[in-house]
Amino acid sequence: MDLSEHLFRREAGRMVSTLTRIFGPQNLALAEDVVQDAFCRAVEVWKFRGVPDNPSAWLMTAAKNRALDVLRRERTARTYEPELNRLLQSEWTLASTLQERFSEHAIKDDQLRMMFSCCHPRLSEEAQVALILHILCGFSVREIASAFVSGHAAIEKRITRAKKVFVKSDLFDVSETDNVAQRLPAVHRALYLLFNEGYHGASPEMAVRRELCREAMRLMSLFLRDPLQAMPATHALAALMCLHAARMPGRLDAAGNLSSFNDQDRSKWDRGLVVEGLRLLELSATGSELTEYHVEAAIASIHATAPRPEDTDWGRIVSLYDALTSLRPSPIVALNRAIAIAQRDGPEAGLETIRTTIDNERLAGYPFYHATLGELELRCGRCDVAREHFEASLVLARNPTERQFFEQRIAACTASGRTPMEANETQ
Fold first, then answer.
1. Which residues fall within 8 angstroms of residue 199, CB to CB, at 6 or more apart?
2. Alpha carbons within 13 A on the beta-carbon side of 304
3. What is the rounded CA–CA span in Å between residue 410 and residue 402?
4. Which of 236, 248, 258, 391 gets the highest tally of CB atoms within 10 A of its CB?
5. What does the pLDDT read at residue 303?
6. Burial call 278-298: b when 16+ CB within 10 Å, e when fewer
7. 3-state SS assignment for residue 150
8. What is the structure's pLDDT at 82?
9. What number of other Cβ atoms are within 10 A of residue 109's Cβ?
10. How does DSSP classify residue 264?
11. Separation between Cα atoms, residue 6 and residue 412, nearest integer Å
12. Contact partners, residue 393, CB within 8 Å, separation at least 6
């Protein structure tokens, strides 16, 4: 059910982080098992008793009690650190210590520590990010593979190897300033991908997953509170999330269908989040560092502050995409740049940009690549060609919402005249 999935996304990483802090990195698998047990028990118990008033607290209590059960088993306890064996000598000490370690403040610290611990220098950045997404964000291997535009088997091997490195390492000390700066980019990347998966990911159930966006923003808030981690890049990424989240209410119409960017009802956008995003973007300019998050947030700010689609400064957006291409080139960035050029210079210019600058093999399985071609061809009046592209998009659609959207675009190919272009941007 949606509630259990939302709770798992939000709570599993928190509980695994705290249990790993208690048991040690070498017992990561045990921590994951304890959390899985808590959720399995919840599914069974809640069928008969109903969902409790505070399901998060219920799950945390179940995990804590399961942890106590494990610690009480002397045979298992011998494999733990001497500190834990000493705790076992006093039931009162054990209970009070665990209670302290399960406090809200301790859990927040554990989450930060766990994210940085996943970023071991022996791992590549992609492996670090994959480990964070898997352990702390509850991503499946399929979801991580989609986020990286990679194969399932390759991601599975990467996570397995990363876990082997993790369990042989010490938990990270978040007070170490130099090491925080070294590992922060990978943590930022993981939270960016978490938010991105919620905003326009590849879920087979739905096109927009608000719970993932909320979780990414919640985790970002932990960094904003810590002076060591609230760096310009942190503010820029937080600004990007706020500015995107502000537009989320307009992404679906009243019937739950995807709305093309230019067709969105801008009165539904959350102006409070726009203001907060602009404030964070201003804070991100305090240093000399320029990251991809600064550029993407700047693009998002132009969209969020334009009263109407025709008021958008597409020339400035194209320039920003040029900068983004230099900082972090990717097929999706190249596609979004082509969309911006089409908005500024016309559909033929957009098509030419796609033909000359985009690796179409990398995007062959991405439905909105074909949809973009379809929209541009439709704007050029070549309806038959446009229909072929939309039919290719329909085959690749990842959920019912996308399928319905592409079916509507296929129907639009029979109509004459120019139509709004779907700007499925990542900015």
1. 208, 213, 244, 248
2. 29
3. 12
4. 236
5. 95
6. bebbebbeeeeebbbbbbbbb
7. coil
8. 54
9. 18
10. S
11. 36
12. 367, 368, 370, 371, 374, 402, 406, 409
| pLDDT on residue 106 | 53
The pLDDT value given to residue 31: 84
The DSSP call for residue 58 is: H
Domain definitions of the chain by residue range = 1-102, 121-215, 340-412
Q: How far is CA 307 from CA 302, 304, 310, 312, 354, in A?
A: 10, 8, 8, 8, 29
Whole-model pTM above 0.85?
no
DSSP structure string for 234-263? HHHHHHHHHHHHHHGGGTB-TTS-B--GGG
Tokens representing 98 are: 């665990």
- Can you read off the two tokens belonging to residue 72? 């009480």
Q: Per-block average pLDDT, block size 10, for the chain (427 residues)?
A: 60 84 83 85 83 80 76 55 51 47 59 87 89 86 80 90 91 75 88 86 64 87 83 95 92 79 88 96 89 96 94 96 94 94 96 91 90 95 94 91 90 65 44
